[in-house]
Give the backbone structure.
Amino acid sequence: MSEVKLFFGPQHPGMHGNASVHLYVEGDLVKKARLVPGMLHRGFEKSMENHTWMGNLALIPRVCVAEPDINEMVFAQGLETIAEVEIPERAHYIRMVIMEMTRILAHMMSLGALASPTGLYTANQWMQADRNNIQDLFEAITGHRIYHMYIVPGGVRKELPQGIETRILDFFTEFERRMPEYHALIFENPTIQARLKDNIMLPEFVVWELGVTGIGMRSAVGKPYDVRKVTPYARYDKVDFEVPVATYSDAYTRSVMKYYEIKESIRIIRQAFDMMPQGKVNVKIAPGNALKWTLPKGQTYSAVESARGEFGYYIVSDGKTQPYRIAVRGASFPQGFLGVERYMPGVRLDDAPLWYDTMGICTPEIDR
Amino acid sequence: MTNSMNNVKAPLLAQIGALFPEVRLKKDRDREITFEVQPRDLHQVLTYLKNAGWRQLSMISCVDWIEDGQFELVYNVFDWTQGLRVLLSMKIDRGEAQAMTIINLFDGAMYYEREIHEFFGVVFLGNEDALKSLFLERWDDIPPLRKDFDSRAYSDKKYVKRFYDPVYGPQGGASFERS
């Protein structure tokens, strides 16, 4: 049988973002695969060097479209480390609420993305409907629906609006009541079970070989390797939450773990509101006008746990008003390049989109 | 500064100091420790760290110190059990930018090296694949993340300049006045 070259993406319902995977298939078996990026490259790292520290705030959330707040968080954390500034206690808890809400958004997006490869479009419609509700909450807090620019160096941009706590908690109570319906819809669906169970395996040695983090790592290694637990930032060491782990990483396990992580995120949001003290929500990280801030010389790597794993910025300051260099570690960089090249071959053609989705690949953060 | 990681750091510092006399401690933050290494020590230090628990290569990044005529390569490894990050900073000459590859130690380094070659022009000896282009199709200038690359000048040279009259309001003279 002859080999055929297929382009999976950039315009394909199963593709996330404008990247392409070049597939060489024989029959319906993938023989060779490689990721071809570049169609989405916006030169973020170069443009960050041309903007002021504060001016970058409008730019950085665009690095990852589905989950923008992680960028603001790593940027803010890194700057606070370099400037050696302590931010107010209340800001830590507000940040945690924002981070967990954005994690839920990202998980719902990727569970909804199971729709197109499996034909279960209802999942995507339900997920998008609830994502819309969460985006309404974000709009009330930050004024923006997608890119919030709310977590700023020194704290958060402004105080929470009045009555938002009740709105958020009411929504999540209602959402939690409906979560069993999501479980029945997605995870008890015979098509999903047939397509995802015992399929697209990720063994432990591959995790270490590629450097996979996040759900992929925890589902194979069986240990709670979560940045929130291992090197707690914000106030994650003060709240009580579980990290779901597994030792058998098929596509089903990796997907169902997102469902359990959503539950844990809701737990964290409730505790954060309980423990949130009153007080200021931001401090200045440098004196004077925000557009003329300078930071002391220094370099640091700042990382958070995103929905897909360890996401970080390596930030270099040379004491001027602009960053000297910022390097972005996209959480899915390892599986996006080396993973596709080495481990996508061997799956069937119709499983290629599922491979891409359940390995948690987000193209914009690779192709930045 | 309070340091919660001393029981992990003390043995690491002692071992690194004993095994590699030329490795210098550069910065010690709470959960992040930076060493300065010489190119000839890099493989040995990384091998030691990998055996001692730093099993994950988080990233490799490069900084262009144009005034010193140097590139700084930063190898970032993480130990998930102890929660301590080690950064190895290695300076190489900017004129003849060459470093040994580390894909023999960390497979995941493959594409980080390829990206750095594309954006900084550092050649990683032993990693043939890194010489191929990755993100930038048919690039025809110096590597773009070098400090002497000016994006504005490149854009002016490469693309036709187009001017637009500022148009405020609907184009073509359409009117919003209601009759």
User: Anything to note?
Assistant: The mean pLDDT of chain B is 85. The two ends of chain B are 73 Å apart (CA to CA). The first strand of chain B starts at residue 24 and ends at 29.
